[in-house]
Every structure is written in C-alpha cells, then in structure tokens.
Amino acid sequence: MLNVQDLHASYGPVLALQGVSLYVPEGGVIAVLGPNGAGKSSTLRAISGLLRASSGTIEFAGQRIDRLSPEAIVRLGISQVPEGRQTFAELTVRENLTIGAYTRGDGSGIRRDMDRVFSYFPVLAQRSKQTAGLLSGGEQQMLAIGRALMARPKLLLLDEPSMGLAPMLVREIFSIVETITREERLTIVVVEQDANLALDIAQHGYVLEAGAVVLDDAAAHLRANEAVRRAYLGY
Amino acid sequence: MDQFEEFAQQVVTGVSIGSIYAIVALAIVMIYRSTGVVNFAQGEMATFTTFISWSLMLRMDFWPAFALAIVIAFFLGGTLEMVVMRPVERASPLNSIVVTLGLLAIFNSVALWRWGPLPKPFPRPDVFTGSALTVGSVTISRLNIGILAIALLMMLALYLLFSYTKIGLAMRATAQNPTASRLVGINVSRMLSLGWAISASVGAVAGMLTAASLTLSVDMMFAILIFAFAGAVLGGLDSPAGAVIGGLGVGVIQALAGNYISTQVDVLVAFMVIVGVLVVRPTGLFGRRVIRRV
User: H/E element holding A218?
Assistant: First the structure.
C-alpha cells in the first residue's frame, strides 16, 4: 500500500533522513522505532507532504505522492495524528472533529463517522461543546485520533501517541487503536518511543538510527533481538 | 434641551462616529483572526479603493460603483496577501508588521500621486439624504442610521461566516494551527488570502461611507484607523461583535468627553478609558483568553 524508497530530506542544512526505505502492506500495522532525532517524525512528515524529500520516492496505492501537497495527500486517504496532538485549542471538540472531515462533502456520512468516533471515545461525546484546550492530555490525544479518522483515511500515521501520558491511559488508547484498526480495516504506521507498546500492536517493525533504517523485521523477532531489547525495550 | 436629552444626543452622535470605527475594526479583526497579523495598511487600502470607487462613480451610479469597488478590494486584498505577505509569513511577526507599514506608505503615496491632495466631494445615495430622524430633541441623520445598519449587518455576516460555515471554521483553524490545518486537508495559503480579501472588502465599505459622510481625501482614514484600532483592542482583537461594540464605545466616549469636558481632550479621555479597560481585562472586553492545559 505504501512504499517508501531511499528517502532523503533535510531541514535547511540539517540532514533528517538519509535513505529511509519502508514498506507497509494493506491492513498492516507497522511500528517505527528509534531514539530521539533518528528521523521517525521526519519520515511521517515526509509521507504527509509537510517535509519535502530531496531524493527518493514515496508511492501510495501505486501513485507517486512525494511531490504532492499535504492537502492533496489527505484527499488520497492518508491522515496523520501529529506529534504533540496539535488539536485546535480554541475550537470545540465537535468543531475539531468537523474540521477533520474538511475534505469530504457527504454530510450524512460525516455525521455517522462522528457518532462512531464518539462511540470509540465516549468522553469526547460528553465534552463535545468544550474547547479542545480544556481537555486533558489523554483526551486531546483521543480527539487528535478522532479528528484524523474523520477524514476516512485508508492509512493512518500515528506520531508518538504515548507522549506525555500516564501508562494506564496509553494502554487504553492503544487498545482502542487496535479495535479501530480491526473495525475500520485501517493500515497504520505508528512511531513510538515506547517500543513495547508499539510492538504489541504491530506485525512488523523498523528501527531508525541517524536518519536511516538499521533494522527491520517481524515484531516478534524484534522483541527477541538482543540489541533492540537492550536499546528500546528496557529489559 | 434638558440634561437627559443632551446626554442622549451625545450618545447618538458618538454611535454615529463609532459606526465607522466599528467597520474598520471589523476589517482589522478579520485579518487578525484569520492570519494572526495586524494590518496597519487597512486604512490606506480603504482610502485607495474609495478613490477607485470615486473614479467609477464618475461613470456610473452610486450602488453599482459601490459593489464594484467591494469586488475590486476583494481581489486587491487577496493578491496583496499572495504577493507581499506570503514571503514574510514564515518569518517573525515583526517582519509582517513592517511590510504592512510599507503598504501603508505605498498606498498613501500612490493615492496622493494619482488623485492629488485636494479633498473631493463624494456622492451620497438618495436613501442616505433627506430629513434627519428626530425623537424628542434628539436627531440622527439618515446617513448615520445607514452607516450603523451597515456596520451591524457586516458584523452579523462575519459572525455567521465564522461560526456556521465550513470555510469560516477552516479560517479559524488556519489562524490557530497552520500545520494541523494542512494535515486535515485545508489549503492554508488560500485561507490566508481569503482573510485579506474579505478584510479589504470590509475596509472598502468603511472608506466609502467615510467619504460619503465627510469628503474624500488622502488622509481621511488616518485618525479613523487609530480609533478603530483602539476599538478593536477594546473589544478583544478576535471577536467581530467585540470589534463593533468596541468601535461604537470609542465613538461614544469621544463624543461624551468632547461635550462634557472639552473637544481638546476627547482623544485623551478615549484612550485613558481603553488603557483602563486593558489593565483590568488584558484580552479586551470580549476577547477570549486562550486556556490551554498541557
């Protein structure tokens, strides 16, 4: 479904990606692991079109997307839940979800999907009239995921969903994500510092270091890998 | 005239002056709300398009020229954002401010060069002429009623746009978080130019109404812009209703101070009240304080 080949990108003089290749099959959950600054977020930003690749290709559903604008990429079916959630603090929860469906014109479908998001995250329904800035971190993360779902993506990119959240809450959010993946037949790329969690829901994982893939394998093999365990699993 | 009637007349006069401030304040709020930038060239852009409408009115009736000028202003505003503002968008807000100050100087000079320094009589449509309305001994001219009505209509229109339309929601989202807006598929650049376009149109209306109530001159919007700014800040820079109430409020304070104290100090008193309000409520009367839990 998604095929990234030898991607290079930089922020001004700072090299962010130096040859990232990854393949995401349809319906799969792929984890991208690695230390801070390894290029995990940059990879997602490049896929979404926020970061322009200097070389390499990104193909989605058989189409080159590496020269498209973020707006066009959303329309093709790729949504991102960005790092740090980035909800619209001064808009209400409902408005945040409504704007998530910006690319769509099917009113009744949008209402149905909003109900579905509310059923995944009942707390959002209770707070639908509050501004997003008043939500707790966990609720904002749920809202960010809900907002991304409102675009009806085929591929969902999750950037550090656990950041700054209590472990209990993170478990809860991950289990909901798992349910959503199953029920909505989504394909997911999840970037995570917490490798344990990510490998729980992923079938396959990539380990990034210094802007390049240093290791990729089935999730179970990565778990068993001595170096990965020491570096990212902490046992 | 008894004391109450005198007071009432001053309030009516203040509301009349304030209606223009209110419209210009709306234009300022419009850009601020959709792009996060304050446009200091707002007044000069309005004057410029008013001169264009004046040239048009030599060839056609008032209302067609009025409408055409609004359309011209729309495209002027949108184009300015794309050509002049976009390059500094990513730089610090200070750069944007300097660019809008530059625009102020440019529009002022071009208007002076093209149309000259002498004030020009500006036509008044028939509905705005005729006898003034009188309640007791309080009078208000038809023109002033018209200006107030237009100010309120535009406030309502902008409120509806921002609160109930998809495009308005997208403009608010863009002002708050451009990156997240792009990630939900909003064409952010288009929203920014749309903000400028609508604002320039609102400003054009203010310019033409000012010219109709005074005369058309190159510097007619200068003082008005300052009071409109004060009104916008008083109301809270991000609220259309606040802009109108703030603008009217500044007009009323100015009229009352001019009548009861001295016309020498009306400006002073108006700004003292504004500073006072801001000391107590830094976000203005209707501005929302952004509350964020992290």
Answer: strand A212-218
